[in-house]
Amino acid sequence: MPKDVPGITKRILFVSLFLTLLLGAVGFLGISTGSSGSGFRAVWWALVNDSRSDPMSAAIIWHIRFPRVILAALVGATLSLGGLVFQALLRNPLAEPYILGVSGGSAIGAIIGILMGFSRFPGVSMTAFGGSMATLLLLLLMSSGHSKFKDSLLLSGVMVNAFAGAIIMFLMSMTQDSRLHNIMFWLMGDLSLADMHQIGILALVLLPCFGLIFRFSHSMNLLLMGQEVAETMGVNIRYVTVALLVTTSFMVSLTVSYCGPVGFVGLVMPHLLRLVIGPDHRTLVPACIIGGGSYMVFCDILSRVLPEQGEMPAGVVTALVGAPLFIYLLKRSGR
Amino acid sequence: MKHHSGLLLLLLFAAISTVLPVQVSAKTVIDQLQRRVDVPDNPLRVISLAPSITEILFVLEQGDRLKGVTRFSDYPQQATALPKVGSYVNLDLEKIVSLKPDLCIAVKDGNPIEIIRRLELFDIPVYAVDPRDLDTVVETVLEIGNLLNADIIARRVAGDMVSRIKKIKTHVAQVVLRPGVFFQIGISPIVSVGAGTFNDELIQLSGGTNLVRGSSAYPRFSKEQVLSLAPEVIIICSMARQGGFERMKAEWNRWPSLPAVRNRQIFLVDSNLFNRPTPRLVDGLELLFQLIHPEFIEGR
Amino acid sequence: MKSALAVHDVSYAYGTTSILKNISFSVQKGSFYIIIGPNGSGKTTLMKIMAGSGKFEKGAVEIMDRPCGQYSRRELARTIAFVPQNIPDDFSFTVREVVLMGRSPHQGVLGLERKEDGKILKKAMAFTGIEHLAHRKIDQLSGGERQRVFIARAICQEPRIILLDEPTAALDLAHQVRIMDLMEQLKNEKGVTVIMVSHDINLAAMYGDRLLLLKEGRIVSQGPAGEVLTFETLEKAYGCLLLVDESPLGAFPRVTPVPHKLNLEI
Predict the structure, then answer these.
(1) By Cβ atoms counted within 10 A, which residue in A214, A331, B17, C161 is the most buried?
(2) Can you give the pLDDT at residue B12?
(3) A314-334 and A281-305 are packed helices; what angle lies between their axes, rounded to 10 degrees?
(4) Are A193 and B114 in contact (CB < 8 Å)?
(5) CATH code, B245
(6) Cβ separation A232–C52 shorter than 8 A
C-alpha cells in the first residue's frame, strides 16, 4: 500500500476485508446447513461441479439455502446500518431501526394484508410497506413544527409502536383461524420464503441506499459534536438529516415488509462494532453492512439448527442471542 | 475457470429439472381449487401436507406411498413414524424437496400459498383440496382415491360414510324435539362454533340446534352469555388435558338452573372427531347423535 | 473601515418573548472583541446568529462585508470557526481525529486526510501545545486540554474569524489565562479576528480591544473597555454593587463585586 494513503482508508479496507472473509465463512456454513442434511461435502461438490454432486442436493443448496443466506445478509446489513444511523441522528444509544414507528406501522399494514387474504409477496409486503411509510409521514408531520424536533420524533415513534402493539393484540384476539398463525410468524420475523428473484430486486434497491449512507459517514462523525458545531463546520444539517432519515427509513421499511420485524440486530450490532472498531462512521458503515450481514446469517443458521424439528423464527434467535450480548456490551462500556 | 462452475451447475440443474421428478406418464387433473395440475399416473412418493390428508391416505390403505407428513399427523399410529416436513402452517420446503415426492396433497385452509408455489417451481405437483362440509369430505376421499389408483377402496369408504350419514338422517327425521346444544371448543376463554364449521354441520345433522348465532366461525362467550342461552346439552371438546374438562364441568355444575346441568348432559368428546375433514367426522356425527338423543339408544 | 463582522439592527423573538432587540455593532478586522452581560442577556443567541446557525427576524449580518446569506455552508465554515464551550460527552474520538475534523470545510466528502492537512494539523497542535496528547481520547482530557483541542480544530478551518462561547467558564485560573493568551497570539500572529462571549468581566477588560455589554437582549454599552466598564453601565446591566477602579497591571479597568457583608455604600 502506498505510503501516503490516509490511515483511515487503510482501516476501512482492512476491516472490510476481514469482515468479508467472515461473511464468506458464515455464508458457506449457511448453505451447508439445512433440514435435508446436505452437509459440507455436498456443498463442495456442488461448487466445484464434481460428478458425485446429486442434482437434488444442488437444487436445495442453490435454490433454497443460498437465497436465504443472501436474504439474511441483506437483512442484517440493513438493520445494523439502520441502527447506526438512527443512533447518530437521534444522539441516543437506545435508538434502533424501528424507532420511528416502522415496526408498528408495517405490522398493522401486514396484518391488514393477511386478513384480506393476500399472499406474502407482493400483497402483504406492499401493505406492510405502505403501513410503515404512512406512519413515518405521520410522525414527521406531527413533529415538524416542534422546537425539540429530535426528541419529539423519538417519543412519537415510541408511542406509535406501543399503540400499534395494542392494535395488533386486538386484531389477533379477533382472529381465530389459521391466518392468525401467519400473522404470528410474520411478527416474529420469517426468512423462510426467500426467493432469488425477489431478493435480487431487494438487493438492487438496498445497495444504493448503503452507498448513500456511506457518503454521509463523515458528516455523521461531525454531527456527533453537536448540531450547531457541525453546522459551523460546513455540514448542511437539514439536508443531511432528511437524506439519512428518508433513506434509512425506506430501506428498513423495505426489509421489514419482506420478512417481518427482526429485533435486536439494529440495536446490538452498532454498539458491538463501536466497541471493537471505534466511533468513526467511515469504518462503522462498511462494518455494519458486512458484519451485520454476517451476524444475521449466523443467527439464521442457529434458527435452522437449534430446534430438533422445524425452525425457530428469526426474531426469536436474534433476541436470545442479542439480549445477553447487549447486556455484556453494557457492562464492558461501563468500565 | 472455477467461477464458471456455478453457472454451469445452474444450467445443468435447469436441464435436469425439466425431467425431475422422473415421470413415466402423467395426466392433467383439476383440483378442488380449480387449478390444473399435472399428476403422475401412479404416484409412489406422496407427501401429505395436513394431518387430515394423512388420515385419508391411511383409510384408503395407501400408507405405503406416503413418504412424509406434517408434524401433528398423529392418526393412525403408523403415521407418527413417518418423516416430518414441518407443521401444516409452517412447511419445511427443504425437507419436502429432499424427500423427492412425485405428488403433494395440500389443504387450502392452512398451507401457505407461497410454499405451494415454490414446490411447483421445483416441478413437484401439488393437488389442493378444500373440504368444507361432509359432502366435500366425501368428494375429497373419492378424488384422492382416484389420484392414487385406489378407486375401489375409495368408493367403499365413501359409500360407508354416506350410508351411515343417511341412517342418522333417517333417525333424526323422526325426532320431535331438537335440544339446544352449546358446543364448547375453548375453555379459557369460552369459544364456541358458528356457521361454516364442521361442528355446526354435525350438530344440525345429529338433530340438535346450535345455539350460536351470527356469522363468526369461532365466537367468544362470557359465562353469562352461555347461561342466558340455556343450553340443554353442553359438549366440551378441547385439546386440553382431562383436568381442564373436569374443572369446566364443575364450573357449569354450579348453575343448576342450566338445563344441561339438570339433565346431566355435559359431555367431553375427542376434538379430532369433529374438526378434521376426514371419515372420522362420521364417527363424530354418530357420537353426537347418541349424546343428544339418548332415547334412540334404547331403541324404539 | 472594513469590518470582519457587522450586525445591523438584528432582532429575534422566541414566541412572544423578545430575546434580542435592535442589536447593531461592528467588529474590526484583526481585533479582539468581547461580548459580556448577565445571564439571560441573549449572549448565546447572538453567538449562534454570528456563527450562522441561529435564525433572526429583523436586520442583517455581514461577514467580511458580504451578507451572511450569500455564503454557502462550506464557504462560511472556511471563514468563521466556532469554538463551543462544551461538546456531548459521549464523543470519544482521539485528539488528532478531532483536530483533523477542522479540515472538513476544505476536504472532500469523506474527509480523507491529504498531505497538506497533516501539515496544517501539526502546526495547529503545536500552536496550542497539545502535540503530546495526539492519541489520547478527548473525553479523557481535562477541561483546559479539551478547550485547546477545540481551538486547534478551529484553527485548522483556516478561518478569518474565530468565535468562542464562554471558553474560560469551566477552567481553572491557569488555563483561563492560557486560553486568552492563545487568542491574543492568534490575533497578533495570524491576523485572525477573535470574537468571544465571556462571563468574566476582568478578563474581558484585560484582553478586549472593544467590548459589548448586553442586558435582556439590548445593548447597554459598546466601545473600549474603559468606556464600557463604568460604574453606571455595570450597575444598569448587572444590578448589583460593583467597585470599578484601574487595574494595577495596566491601563484597563478592574471590576470588583462588593459583598453585602461589608456594609459599604458607594
Answers:
(1) C161
(2) 59
(3) 130
(4) yes
(5) 3.40.50.1980
(6) yes
